[in-house]
Design a protein that fits this description.
The complex is a heterotrimer of chains A (about 250), B (about 550) and C (about 350).
Chain A (H helix, E strand, L loop, with lengths): L2 H18 L15 H36 L1 H9 L3 H26 L3 H31 L11 H4 L13 H5 L1 H34 L9 H26 L7
Chain B lengths: L30 H5 L4 H29 L10 H20 L2 H15 L7 H23 L13 H5 L4 H28 L12 H32 L13 H35 L6 H15 L14 H29 L8 H24 L1 H7 L3 H31 L5 H28 L13 H31 L39 H6 L10
Helix pairs in contact in B: 2-3, 2-4, 2-5, 2-16, 3-5, 4-7, 4-8, 4-9, 4-14, 5-7, 7-8, 8-9, 8-10, 9-10, 9-11, 9-12, 9-14, 10-11, 11-12, 12-14, 12-15, 14-15, 15-16
Chain C lengths: L4 H13 L11 H32 L15 H30 L6 E8 L2 E5 L5 E3 L1 E5 L4 E7 L4 E5 L4 E5 L5 E5 L5 E7 L11 E7 L1 H11 L5 H11 L2 H4 L18 E3 L5 E3 L2 H9 L22 H13 L4 H11 L14
Parallel strand pairs in C: 1-5, 4-10
Antiparallel strand pairs in C: 1-2, 2-3, 5-8, 6-7, 6-9, 9-10, 11-12
Helix pairs in contact in C: 2-3, 5-8, 7-8
Classes of the chains: A mainly alpha (about 250), B mainly alpha (about 550), C alpha+beta (about 350).
Chain lengths: ~250, ~550, ~350
C-alpha cells in the first residue's frame, strides 16, 4: 500500500540494472526515462521537432518574399543592390566560423575536455557578437538613408539614382514605392534572424557558465549537442537569407 | 481482480473501494509544489483550472452577445462594445479554451499513462507550456482590461493594421505566447509517443485517444508558427509601419488571409481531433467492445491531419481567388470530410453486438455524434463552391462551426472529463445530476444554434450588432437556447466541485475499461506505475481484461 | 382559453415577419436553392441513418438484454461501403457546387455594368449614366446586371441574400458579381465582412423595378453627367491627353478601342484589357508598359480617388475615336483651361 516505499525500491532496482551493465548513472539522468539512451534520443528528437517549428516560422516569411519578388521584380532587384555584399559576405563567413567552433565545442564536450569546450563556446559567442555588430552597421546605414519602412521611408534614391552617384537604372515612381515591401521583408527576416541570434547568445552565456562549472565534462553532453543543432539552424537560415536578399540577380557591374 | 465474462459489466470494487493513501495529489503539499511541479498530472490539473476559468470568461461574452441580440435595436451596448464582445469571445474561446482543451488537460494527464511511461518526455517544457499559456492569457486579459480589442478573432488586415485603434498588439502578443504553449505541448506529445512507449506498446496497440492527439500534435507543431509569424507581421505593421500586408504600400492583404488560414484551418482539426479520440475511448468502454475497425479510425485521424493542411483556401472562396485554385480546394475539402464520416460509422458499429450501458460520458458521446454529423455535413454545404457564396459570412457559418466546436469538441471534452474524473480525483461524479446537465446542454445547444442555420440561409450576416426586425423571432429562440445551454455548462462546475469532497470513492477501474490508465490506482501515484508495464495485448482487449491477473500490470492501492 | 390581445398581436406580427426561407428574387436563386435542398436531404438522411444505428444498437444491445459483448474486429466490406458512398456523395456536391459557382461568378456578356465603391460604412453605386446612389441600388428586372466593385479602405463584402449572391469587396482590386433580378421589390444589401465599428450599419436596399419604371428612374435621377463624361474631363484636366492623343507621334499608346483588346507588353506577355487592367495601368504604369513605348508615365497612386478611377475606366471603355481627345488637346493647348471636376482630383 505504501507507494513511497515502492518507489524507493524501484529506484534501487533501476540503479541495480544499470550497474549490471556497468553504467554510471549520471546526476542529470531524469527519473522518468528508462535509460540514458532514451533520454538522449528524446532530447535530440525534440530539438529536431522544434527546429521544424522554426522552419515553418521562417517559411511564412520566405513565402511572402518569393511572392513579392515575383510581383515587384524590378524594385526587389534595385533595393537588393543597396545591400552591401562585402558586409553580408563577412557576416556569412563569421557565422560559418561560429558554427565551426560550435561543432568543435560539441566535440570537446564529447571527449570531455572542459577547457577546450569553454574556449570554443567563448569563441562562438564572440563571433555571434561580431555578426550582430556588423548587422547593426548595416541597419544604421539604412536608417540614415531613410530605407526603414514607415513614415520616413524615402524612395528618391531609387527614382533618381544619378543624383546619389549610383550607376543604376532609375525606377519608375510606382515601382520605386514597392522597394518598401522589400525593406519590410528585409527587416522582418533579418530581424527575426537576429532575434534568434540574441536568444542563442543568451543561451551560450548560460552554457558557458555551466561548462565552466564542469557539468558537461562527465559524458553528459545533451544540452551542448542540442544547442549546437539550434545554432547551426540559425546559421542555415542565414545561408538562405544571404543569397535571397543580397546576391540574386543584381545588376552586373554594380 | 480475475472476473468471469458474465460479471464484467458490473462495477466491481466500488462499494469496498478506498482512496489510496498516497497519490500524485497529496504526494507533496503547498502551492509551490504545484507551481514548480514537473508531474504531467499536476500540470494537467493546472491547465484544467485555467482553461475552465477562460471558458467561463468566454462564455460570459457569449451570454452578453446573445442578450444584446434579443432585440434588433442596439439597447444593451454600443456597436464598439459589441464588436469587442464578439472579438474577445472568439479570441478567448479559440486560443485559450478550444485549442488547449482536451490535449493540455486530458492529453497531458493520460498520454504518458496510456503509453506506460512515467511522465512526458520533457516535464520542464510541459510546465513552461502552462506558464506560457497563463502569460498569453494574462496578455489577453490585459487587452480586455485596457479597453478591449475589436478586430474579430481573425485579425483581418488592413482593418486590424490601419483602421482600428484598440489593443490589437497586446492581444496579438497574447495569442503569440499562447501559441508557443501549444507548440510545446504538441512537441512533448510527439516525442513521448515516439520514444517513451512501454515495452510491447507498438504503434497499433496504442489507444485511439493517443492516435488522435498525435495527429493534433503534428498540426500544432507545424501550423502554429505560421500564425505566429503572421501576427508578428501585423504587430510590426501597426507599430513600426512595415508594409507586407498594406495595399497602399504594395503589400497584399490577401496574403495575410492565406497565412492566417494556413494555421487556422488546421487549428480546427487541432480542436476536434483530440475530442474524437475521447469519443473512441468512451464508446468502446461503455459498449465493452473493441472499436470497430481500429486501424481505419487511427489512420483517419492522420488523414484528417494531412488533408487539413491543404484546405485553407475554402475560407476565401468569395475573396477573388483564382477559379482553378477554388476548384482544387473545394475538392480537397470534400475529401477531408470522408475520414470524419468513416469515424462516425465506425463508432456507430462499435455499438453493434456490444453490451451497452448509458453512463454520462456515453450520453455526451451520443450527443457528440448527433451534433457532429450536423456540424460536419453543414461543412459540406460550405465546401460546395456555389453554396458557399450564399452561406459564407452569415449565421450559417456561425452555426456550423459552433456545431463542430461546441457540439463536437465541448461535448467530447465534457465526456472525457466525466469519463476520467474518477481517475483524476479518485471520486465519482453524481450520476443523475450529470445526466441532467448532459441532456440540458444538448437541448439548449440545439435551441441556440439550429435557428442560426435558418437565419444564415435567410442571409443574416455574422458580427451584426443591429439587424433587420424580421430576424427577431429566430434570434429570440437562439437567446433562449443560450440560457438553457449556460445552465447546462454551469451545472458540471457545481457538482464536479461537490464531488471532490463528497463523491463516492471510485476505485481503480469503475468502468471496467481496458486502458492502462485504468489498471493503476485512482488517483495515480506520481510516477504512475510502480513498475513499467509490459504490454502484451491489443488496445480495447476486453478478454484480456477479463482474464488479467494481478501480475500483468502492477496495481498499487 | 384567453390570450391577451396585445400578446396575440405581437405573436402574429412576429410570425408574419419571420420567414424560414428567403425570397427567390434572381435567376440564380432557384439553382442555389436546388443544391441547398439536395444538401439538406443528404444531411437529414445521414442524420437519420446514424441516429437509427445508434438508437437501434442501443436498444438491441443494451447491457440488460445483451450482457456479454461479442468482439468484432471490423469489416473491410462495411468500412469500404461507408468510405465510398460518402465520397461519391461529396463528389456530387463538389461538382454541383462548382457548376453553380461558375454560373454565379461568370457574368453574361450582355450584362449592364454598375460600379460599387465600398467604404467605412456605406455603399456608393455609380451607374454609367451618371446616377449616383448611396446605400441603394436601382436595377431593372429581366436584365443581367454586373457589379464592378472596389473598396476604398478595408475588406467589405457585398451581399444580397434574396439574390443569393455575395462577393468580397477588396481594397486595391476590382471584384465582380452579377445577377438578374426577377421580381420587382426591395431587397436587403448587407456588408457581410466585418469592417469596423458600424459594420452592421453598412446596409442598403436594392430596388428592383420593371423595365419601364427603371427607365423612368434613370431619367429622373441622373446627375446630368455620365461617368464617361466625368472621365473625359478628368482625362483632360490631368493631362492624360497630352500623351494618349492617338496621333502617330504620341508618347503614350492610343486608347481608342483598347478596351477588350489584347495588348502585348514590353516584357512580351499578352494581356486582356479589362477594367482591372486599366485601373492598374493608371496606378502602376511601369508594370504595364505597352510594347514599343518608353516607361515614362508617372504613377497616379494617391492622386485619383476610386470614384475618379471609375470615371477614367468608364471613359476609356467608351472611347472609340480620338477625335474629341485631340479636340480637347487643342483647346487646352490654346490656354483654355479644361474644366475641373471638383472632388475628383485629390489636392
Amino acid at each position: 500500500m505504501d507507494n513511497a516505499l515502492v518507489a524507493t525500491h524501484h529506484h534501487t532496482d533501476e540503479t541495480a540494472v544499470h550497474e549490471e551493465h556497468e553504467h554510471v548513472v549520471l546526476p542529470q539522468h531524469r527519473h522518468h526515462f528508462e535509460t540514458e539512451q532514451q533520454q538522449r534520443e528524446a532530447g535530440t528528437f525534440g530539438m529536431w521537432l522544434f527546429l521544424l517549428t522554426e522552419i515553418m516560422f521562417f517559411g511564412g516569411l520566405f513565402f511572402a518574399y518569393l511572392l513579392y519578388r515575383n510581383w515587384y521584380h524590378d524594385a526587389f532587384v534595385a533595393a537588393s543592390n543597396q545591400l552591401s555584399i562585402p558586409l553580408g559576405a563577412t557576416n556569412t563567413a563569421i557565422l560559418i566560423g561560429s558554427g565551426f567552433f560550435m561543432a568543435l565545442g560539441v566535440w570537446a564536450a564529447e571527449v570531455r575536455k572542459k577547457g577546450l569546450l569553454v574556449l570554443f563556446l567563448v569563441i562562438t559567442t564572440v563571433l555571434g557578437f561580431a555578426f550582430l555588430g556588423i548587422k547593426y552597421v548595416e541597419y544604421h546605414e539604412k536608417w540614415e538613408k531613410h530605407h526603414i519602412p514607415g513614415e520616413h521611408f524615402d524612395v528618391s534614391e531609387f527614382v533618381n539614382p544619378q543624383a546619389y552617384g549610383l550607376k543604376e537604372q532609375p525606377l519608375a515612381p510606382d515601382m520605386a514605392q514597392k522597394t518598401q515591401v522589400f525593406f519590410s521583408l528585409y527587416f522582418a527576416m533579418t530581424g527575426m534572424h537576429a532575434l534568434h541570434m540574441i536568444i542563442g547568445i543568451g543561451l551560450l552565456f548560460w552554457l558557458t557558465w555551466r561548462a565552466y562549472r564542469g557539468e558537461f565534462s562527465s559524458g553528459y553532453v545533451a544540452p551542448i549537442e542540442n544547442f549546437g543543432l539550434y545554432w547551426h539552424f540559425v546559421d542555415i537560415v542565414w545561408i538562405f537569407l544571404f543569397p535571397l536578399l543580397y546576391l540574386i540577380n543584381r545588376h552586373p557591374g554594380s | 481482480m480475475s472476473t468471469t465474462t458474465t460479471t464484467i459489466v458490473n462495477l466491481p470494487d466500488q462499494r469496498t473501494a478506498t482512496l489510496p493513501k498516497r497519490h500524485y495529489l497529496n504526494n507533496e503539499d503547498g502551492l509551490l509544489s504545484w507551481l514548480f511541479t514537473g508531474d504531467h498530472k499536476r500540470i494537467a490539473i493546472l491547465y484544467l483550472i485555467s482553461i475552465t476559468f477562460f471558458f467561463f470568461i468566454g462564455g460570459a461574452f457569449a451570454g452578453l452577445i446573445r442578450l444584446e441580440l434579443l432585440t434588433p435595436q442596439p439597447d444593451l451596448m454600443a456597436s464598439d462594445t459589441y464588436n469587442k464582445m464578439f472579438s474577445m469571445h472568439g479570441i478567448v474561446m479559440v486560443f485559450l479554451f478550444l485549442v488547449p482543451s482536451v490535449p493540455a488537460t486530458l492529453g497531458n494527464f493520460l498520454i504518458p499513462i496510456m503509453l506506460g511511461a512515467k511522465d512526458l518526455a520533457f516535464p520542464k517544457i510541459n510546465l513552461l507550456s502552462w506558464y506560457l499559456y497563463v502569460a498569453g492569457g494574462l496578455f489577453t486579459l490585459a487587452a480586455l482590461v485596457l479597453g478591449g480589442v475589436d478586430t474579430g478573432w481573425t485579425f483581418t488586415t488592413p482593418l486590424s493594421t490601419h483602421y482600428l485603434n484598440t489593443n490589437v498588439v497586446t492581444a496579438a502578443t497574447g495569442i503569440f505566447i499562447a501559441g508557443f504553449a501549444s507548440i510545446f505541448t504538441g512537441l512533448n506529445f510527439i516525442v513521448t509517443i515516439h520514444r517513451m512507449r512501454a515495452p510491447g506498446m507498438t504503434w497499433f496497440r496504442m489507444p485511439l485517444f493517443v492516435w488522435a492527439n498525435y495527429a493534433a500534435s503534428i498540426l500544432m507543431v507545424l501550423g502554429t508558427p505560421v500564425v505566429a509569424i503572421s501576427l508578428v507581421l501585423v504587430a510590426l505593421e501597426r507599430t513600426v509601419g512595415i508594409g507586407v500586408f498594406d495595399p497602399t504600400k504594395g503589400g497584399d492583404p490577401l496574403l495575410f488571409q492565406h497565412l492566417f488560414w494556413f494555421y487556422s484551418h488546421p487549428a480546427v482539426y487541432i480542436m476536434i481531433l483530440p475530442g474524437m479520440g475521447v469519443i473512441s475511448e468512451v464508446i468502446s468502454t461503455f459498449s465493452r467492445k473493441r472499436v470497430f475497425g481500429y486501424t481505419a479510425v487511427a489512420f483517419s485521424s492522420v488523414a484528417i491531419a494531412l488533408f487539413g493542411f491543404f484546405v485553407w483556401e475554402h475560407h476565401m472562396f468569395i475573396m477573388g481567388v483564382s477559379n482553378y485554385s477554388a476548384l482544387v480546394f473545394s475538392l480537397l475539402t470534400m475529401l477531408v470530410a470522408v475520414p470524419s464520416a468513416i469515424k462516425i460509422f465506425n463508432w456507430a458499429f462499435t455499438l453493434q453486438k456490444g453490451s451497452i450501458t448509458f453512463e454520462t460520458p456515453m450520453i455526451y458521446a451520443f450527443a457528440f455524434m448527433g451534433l457532429f454529423v450536423i456540424g460536419g455535413m453543414t461543412g459540406v454545404f460550405l465546401g460546395a463552391l456555389g453554396m458557399d457564396i450564399h452561406l459564407t459570412e452569415t449565421y450559417f457559418i456561425v452555426a456550423h462551426f459552433h456545431y463542430v466546436m461546441v457540439g463536437g469538441m465541448l461535448m467530447a471534452f465534457l465526456a472525457g472529463i466525466h469519463f476520467w474524473w474518477p481517475k483524476m480525483t479518485g471520486r465519482m461524479y453524481p450520476e443523475s445530476f450529470s445526466k441532467l446537465s448532459a441532456v440540458t446542454s444538448f437541448i439548449g445547444f440545439n435551441l441556440t444554434f439550429m435557428p442560426q442555420f435558418i437565419l444564415g440561409y435567410l442571409g443574416m450576416p455574422r458580427r451584426y450588432h443591429v439587424y433587420p426586425p424580421e430576424f427577431q423571432v429566430l434570434n429570440v429562440l437562439s437567446t433562449a437556447g443560450a440560457t438553457v445551454l449556460g445552465v447546462g455548462f454551469l451545472l458540471p462546475l457545481l457538482y464536479l466541485g461537490w464531488s471532490l469532497k463528497y463523491g463516492a470513492i471510485a476505485g481503480d477501474n469503475p468502468w471496467q475499461a481496458t486502458g492502462l490508465e485504468w489498471q493503476i490506482q485512482s488517483p495515480p501515484i506520481t510516477e504512475n506505475f510502480t513498475e513499467i508495464p509490459i504490454v502484451d495485448h491489443e488496445a480495447y482487449d476486453y478478454d484480456w481484461l477479463a482474464h488479467k491477473t494481478e501480475q500483468e500490470v502492477t496495481t498499487v492501492g | 382559453m384567453h390570450i391577451s390581445p396585445v400578446l396575440w398581436q405581437f405573436l402574429v406580427k412576429w410570425l408574419n415577419a419571420s420567414a424560414l426561407f428567403p425570397r427567390e428574387a434572381s435567376t440564380i436563386a432557384p439553382y442555389t436553392d436546388a443544391l441547398y435542398f439536395f444538401l439538406l436531404v443528404i444531411t437529414v438522411v445521414g442524420l437519420i441513418l446514424v441516429g437509427a444505428l445508434v438508437f437501434g444498437f442501443s436498444i438491441r444491445y443494451r447491457a440488460e438484454r445483451h450482457p456479454v459483448a461479442i468482439q468484432v474486429e471490423g469489416s473491410t466490406l462495411l468500412e469500404a461501403t461507408w468510405t465510398i458512398i460518402p465520397l461519391a456523395l461529396f463528389l456530387v456536391c463538389f461538382v454541383w457546387g462548382a457548376l453553380l459557382y461558375f454560373r454565379i461568378y461568370t457574368p453574361p456578356t450582355n450584362a449592364m455594368n454598375v460600379y460599387i465603391v465600398g467604404k467605412q460604412w456605406m455603399w456608393k453605386a455609380e451607374h454609367p449614366g451618371g446616377q449616383h446612389e448611396i446605400n441603394a441600388l436601382h436595377v431593372p428586372t429581366g436584365r443581367p446586371v454586373q457589379l464592378t466593385m472596389i473598396s476604398q479602405d478595408v475588406f467589405h463584402s457585398f451581399s444580397v441574400p434574396d439574390f443569393r449572391v455575395k462577393r468580397e469587396v477588396i481594397p486595391g482590386r476590382y471584384s465582380t458579381v452579377w445577377f438578374e433580378a426577377t421580381e420587382p421589390g426591395t431587397y436587403h444589401i448587407f456588408c457581410t465582412q466585418y469592417c469596423g465599428t458600424q459594420h452592421s450599419g453598412m446596409i442598403g436596399e436594392v430596388t428592383v423595378l420593371t423595365p419601364e419604371d427603371y427607365k423612368k428612374w434613370t431619367q429622373e435621377s441622373t446627375s446630368g453627367m455620365s461617368l464617361a463624361q466625368n472621365g473625359e474631363r478628368l482625362f483632360a484636366s490631368m493631362g492624360c491627353n497630352a500623351c494618349h492623343s492617338g496621333s502617330a507621334a504620341a508618347r503614350g499608346p492610343n486608347l481608342a478601342g483598347v478596351y477588350g483588346s489584347k495588348l502585348t507588353l514590353t516584357n512580351g506577355s499578352q494581356v486582356l484589357v479589362n477594367d482591372a487592367y486599366l485601373r492598374d495601368a493608371i496606378l502602376n504604369p511601369s508594370q504595364h508598359i505597352t510594347a514599343g513605348f518608353a516607361p515614362i508615365m508617372p504613377t497616379y497612386q494617391g492622386q485619383v480617388s476610386e470614384d475618379g478611377l471609375i470615371d477614367l475606366v468608364e471613359y476609356i471603355k467608351t472611347l472609340d475615336t480620338n477625335y474629341r481627345v485631340q479636340q480637347t488637346l487643342t483647346t487646352s493647348e490654346s490656354n483654355q483651361v479644361a474644366p475641373k471636376t471638383p472632388g475628383m482630383v485629390k489636392p
